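Retro notes, item 3 of 5
We never archived the inputs for the (2S)-amino(hydroxy)ethanoic acid complex last cycle. Fixing that now. Sequence and ligand:
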Amino acid sequence: MTLAAPDSLREPLRAPRIDADRLWARLMALARIGATDKGGVCRLALTGLDGQARELFIRWARELGCTVRIDAIGNIFARRPGTDESLPAVGTGSHIDTQPTGGRFDGNYGVLAGLEVLQALDDAGIRTRAPLEVAVWTNEEGSRFVPVMMGSGVHAGAFPLEHALAAADAGGVTVRQALRELGHDGAAPAAVADGAPRFGAYFEAHIEQGPVLEDAGVTIGVVTAALGQRWYDVTVRGMEAHAGPTPMGLRRDALLPAAALMQKVREIALAEQPHGRGTVGCVDVFPSSRNVIPGRVRFTVDLRHADEAGLARMDAALREAVRALSCPEVSIEVEQVVCFPPQAFDERLVGLVRQGAEDAGLTRMDVVSGAGHDAVYVARTAPTAMIFVPCKDGISHNELEDARPADLAAGATVLLHAMLAQAGVAD
Ligand code: HGY
Ligand code: MN
Ligand code: MN
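Structure as it came back at the time:
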């Protein structure tokens, strides 16, 4: 029979405290992997650089005594045991893959804030009843491989594992091959439906990636929901021809209807304010020679809205515009490649985030996320909430992305409070 140590001998439970410098140091160490000359990060999903970043995370997690699990789509889970291992884990995390001209904080912050919470609990000698897990979700950005939010999407059953593994980049390399190259083609089931453990609750900390918090002078964004998204690949086909001998009236110029459609994307979004968003991010003109009439134009469309009916209206307006611009000389194909509805977060967990900000004496406001996050898919499998902190000038998906150490630590403090409230402190 083991006697409990008398109170005087037991390490007193100190209030856990986020170490802002330690969090910042880890962020800067991670940012060195794929660092760009302009101070950003280019670390595309499942490249060698992403592999190095994954291994660094795994090393840090193991140094904290975590066990590490990698699932079949490469999601990484670092687990800190609870005193009651029968309870579902309280999860946190985000992604460490970046945009080609990405920043040091998008995704990386949520992963390292999670590690910082674990280390703060260690420093304070606190055990939680429920286990805690920090997740690194594969390919959140959707920049190298589509669909976006791939690892969390497979976890939640938004699309099958096979569909994700077969996704190929512009060079024809598949996710399956890239995972194998990194040795991160894990054995653990990836989808909850296939037996992957479901979180008891999930909190994700993230920079806001917009100007609202900074503009309001508020530190904590209590995220109540995220916009729904629809992504399309549009291909307009005409006929390449010589720019000189071909009269204007006898051309099959693919660029003309493409340009009109791109303008229409902006009009469709402006008609759906305040939450409607429409973006053409990639344009590829073929053969892209100054004295050849374009024979083919490919471009992407990203539509977003706060409600499903609004998204449906935007989709219908896009397809109507395609119909109106179609003509015998030029064909227009639209393929929808991503579709997920707006996602409300769990009211009770959102309340824990609010309470965490209050307990920490931090200013807060409710916000809706314009960006998609892994939490959007995880919310389909477990109660989920998000915590936003400001980023400089609201700039993100840009190498200039920046954030203040104090704000990042504040968000991690709220994360700590919310996770502790959910996981329970063991006696
Ligand atoms: O596109 C998004 O909203 C996210 O950054 N992947
Ligand atoms: Mn992100
Ligand atoms: Mn992003």
